[in-house]
């Protein structure tokens, strides 16, 4: 289990729509994780665990569902793959990729994760790669309310050369970082995701 964090988009105390409203994206999550070819044994075990969790919980993508639920995030690269756009989150005060909870009207995980990335980066023209690049299951602290664990599904996106990021209400700052010079406080957590995204960009 990787002790990392995916930023929520709203208060964990707000349950939002009923779990039944998440039926479409729940089906997409099962399909996407079923077809995804995990790159190693650790990721394969997570893939299996996620599918079992989805099988057991129709509300696995809802804030009002189980204390562990699926979230989506996106690591944003420039076209060369040599720079990474990160957000300094208000709650965590650390640099992370963009992402958070799925919404009931998200049609797919990749669409929902892309929505989060566009909202939080201020870049509407992001190109989100369609395939999952990494899974990461991690515990949360008490500051996140009843939610105790995120089963994060991670994607990669490319920003156009002319893109100008903007700071959203979710962030203290948004900044480009060299892929080989990530911030000290989150380098160990971010580097595997950045490398996975770079490999996906080269495919």
The average pLDDT score comes to 88
The CATH homologous superfamily corresponds to: Nucleoside Triphosphate Pyrophosphohydrolase
**Regions with pLDDT < 50 over 5+ consecutive residues?**
5-13
Instruction: Categorize the overall geometry.
Output: globular
CATH fold description = Nucleoside Triphosphate Pyrophosphohydrolase
Distance between the termini: 27 Å
Provide the structure class: alpha+beta
Please report which band the strand proportion falls in: under 5%, 5-15%, 15-25%, 25-35%, 35-45% or over 45%: 15-25%
Number of domains as seen in the coordinates: 1
CATH architecture: Alpha-Beta Complex
**Assembly state (oligomeric):** single chain
Q: What share of the residues lie within helices?
A: 25-40%
Question: Counting H and I runs of at least 4 residues, what is the number of helices?
Answer: 4
Work out the radius of gyration: 16 Å
Biggest sheet layout: 8 strands, mixed
Number of strands: 8
CATH class: Alpha Beta
Molecular structure report:
The protein is α+β, with helices and mostly antiparallel strands and about 200 residues long. The protein has one domain: Nucleoside Triphosphate Pyrophosphohydrolase. It is built from 4 helices and 8 strands, in the order ααββββαββββα. It has helices at about 25-35, 40-55, 110-120, 185-200; strands at about 70-75, 85-90, 95, 100, 125-130, 135-140, 150-160, 170-180. Strands 1, 2, 3, 4, 5, 6, 7 and 8 form an 8-stranded mixed beta sheet that branches. Helix 1 packs antiparallel against helix 2 (about 40-55). The longest helix is centred in the first third of the chain and has 16 residues, at about 40-55. The radius of gyration is 16 Å and the shape is globular.
